[in-house]
Amino acid sequence: MKAVTFARATGVAILLFASGIAAARSDDTPPDSICSVVGTAQRYVGTTVTVRGVASTEGKVTTLSDTQCAASLSLSMDDNASKKRDVSAFRRTVGEKGVKADATVFGRFKATGDAKAPYGIDVYSVRDVNELPAAEGG
Q1: Which of the four pLDDT bands, split at 50, 70 and 90, describes residue 25?
Q2: Residue 137 and residue 4: Cα distance in Å, rounded?
Q3: Are strands 100-111 and 32-33 parallel, antiparallel or unpaired?
Q4: How would you classify residue 7: left for phi > 0, otherwise alpha for psi between -120 and 50, otherwise beta?
Q5: How far is it, in rounded angstroms, from Cα 121 to Cα 79?
Q6: Exposed, middle or buried, 129 (CB in 10 Å: 0-12/13-18/19+)?
Q7: pLDDT at residue 128 above 70?
Q8: Which DSSP string do the residues of 12-81 spell out, in sequence order?
Q9: Which candidate in 34, 72, 85, 103 could, as Cys together with 129 as Cys, close a disulfide (CB 3.0–4.6 Å)?
Q10: Alpha-carbon distance 103 to 22, whole Å?
Q11: SS3 state of residue 95
Q12: What is the predicted pLDDT for the residue at 97?
């Protein structure tokens, strides 16, 4: 009788422990800052990154920037990515003239060879997009 009770208690404890680990683990990777990624760019080239910043579009170029270090990344969204609901909604939001949005971007980090924006991201997905209020006078 004591062995059965002990086995049940042990099973419950293991189950609670395992569910606690599963609850603590999340599929949402916390975003890195653009400043830290650009500051150690060679470490990230060719890897997937998740970064958060302010997105805007000027002409046909969409960038993700961080005012804390004046860094920016160019964002490339190919036809396959644009078919995804999150990416197409993001593109529509920041595609309007003068619109800026806070966003978390996930994609492959790459060197662009452009002096103005030497690094960029091939966008795979976008989340937590929040349109920012227009700047006064702008």
Answers
A1: very low
A2: 74
A3: unpaired
A4: alpha
A5: 15
A6: middle
A7: yes
A8: HHHHHHHHHHHHH--SSPPPEEHHHHHHTHHHHTTSEEEEEEEEEEETTEEEEEETTTTEEEEEE--HHH
A9: 103
A10: 26
A11: helix
A12: 77
The number of residues making up the chain comes to: 138
Query: What's the predicted TM-score (pTM) here?
Result: 0.73
Amino acid at site 93: T
Give the tokens for residue 109: 């980090």
User: What is the overall mean pLDDT for the chain?
Assistant: 81
Amino acid at residue number 115 = A
Query: Which one, of 128, 112, 131, lies nearest residue 41 by Cα?
Result: 112
Tell me how crowded residue 53 is: count the other CB atoms within 10 A of its CB: 25
CA distance to 41, 49, 58, 76, per residue, from 46 (Å): 10, 9, 26, 14
Tokens of 74: 């160019």
Give residue for tokens 């795979």.
124
Residue 41 makes CB contacts below 8 A (sequence gap 6+) with: 109, 111, 118, 119
CA separation for the pair 39, 33 (Å, rounded): 10
